[in-house]
Amino acid sequence: MAKKRKVVSKHKRREKQLSQYPKPNYEVGDLIRVNDGVMDANWDDLPLGGWVGRIDKVHRQPDSPCYDVTWTPETLKLAHPVYEALAEEEGLNWDEFGGLLEDEFTRYQGEPIQLADPGDVACYCDRPLSKDHLIDRIRMVFGLKALEKIPSFGDDAPLKTYYDYLMKHLEFPFEATFVHTYANEKYPFTCQGIYNPDETDYGNDTYGLFCYGRNPDGTERECPLHDVLITKNIPQKQWIEDYCAWTSLF
Predict the structure, then answer these.
(1) SS3 content of the chain, % helix, strand, coil (to 5)
(2) CA–CA separation, 145 vs 248, rounded Å?
(3) What is the model's pTM?
(4) What gap in Å lies between CA 220 and CA 189, rounded to an integer?
(5) Torsion angle defined by CA atoms of residues 186, 226, 94 and 61, in that order, rounded to the nearest 10 degrees
(6) Cα(200)–Cα(235) distance, integer angstroms
(7) Domain with CATH 2.30.30 in the chain
(8) Is it true that domain 15-107 has CATH number 2.115.10?
(9) How far, in Å, CA of 86 to CA of 46, rounded?
(10) Are 96 and 83 in contact (CB under 8 A)?
(11) Cβ(35)–Cβ(51) under 8 Å?
(12) Distance between CA atoms of 65 and 52, rounded to whole angstroms?
């Protein structure tokens, strides 16, 4: 008769595995300062030397522990605005950073914080906008440059600006679907136009622009443009999807 195999829980196997990894020299709550010469993992020509943060999480790994940190308010205040702008561009929290290795920082001793100079950041701020980049396409609507903040659709002026832009590019009518979020229903209709927010009561800081059209049975349809879905690959598809992306940024 075969010997009964001893069952080891996943938790214990994980603990045994971690015990073979190098022991961390830092723990959650420790303040650390990034060494000179360390570059941002997302933008390898932007330095992080001198940045001070508090350890939030420790990751045990085969070669070396790595650490997630939150930068101190003093550090963020001194940082060049390009760091925040680039993080927002990629949907990252710019006050957080993950994956620092032990040879990339030392314990912070309370000395004055001095951040490494990022140098010329014109390659980020002055780059030409790309039609292949969603955020760039939205910036084109408002005549912005790279990394400039995009206005909220909750403000009247940006809403009118986006209306004017869409009216220059969209061709009516086109087939679409109204997606009723709360009822979890979809209603096909023919979109015939968009209401001018300056000339009608349609268009506000809650729902954005409104469009109008007709249902298959001939009855009228009015709905927020950000609830409109276009399934067919027609020219209007990208313009509507970009508008919906703009409204979801805030």
Answers:
(1) 30, 25, 50
(2) 21
(3) 0.71
(4) 9
(5) 20
(6) 27
(7) 15-107
(8) no
(9) 11
(10) no
(11) no
(12) 18
pLDDT in 10s for each residue of the chain, 250 residues: 444 554 445 555 555 555 678 899 999 999 999 999 999 998 989 999 999 999 999 998 888 899 999 999 999 999 999 999 999 888 899 999 999 999 999 999 999 999 999 999 999 988 999 999 999 999 999 999 999 989 987 777 899 999 999 999 999 999 999 998 777 899 999 999 999 988 877 666 678 999 999 999 999 999 999 999 998 888 889 999 999 999 988 7
Tokens representing residue 118 in the block: 């990022």
Backbone angles phi, psi at 186, to 5 degrees: -125, 135
Q: What are 243's two structure tokens?
A: 């508008």
**Residues in the chain, total:** 250
Residue 247 contacts residue 222 (beta carbons within 8 Å): no
Two tokens, residue 48: 């992080």
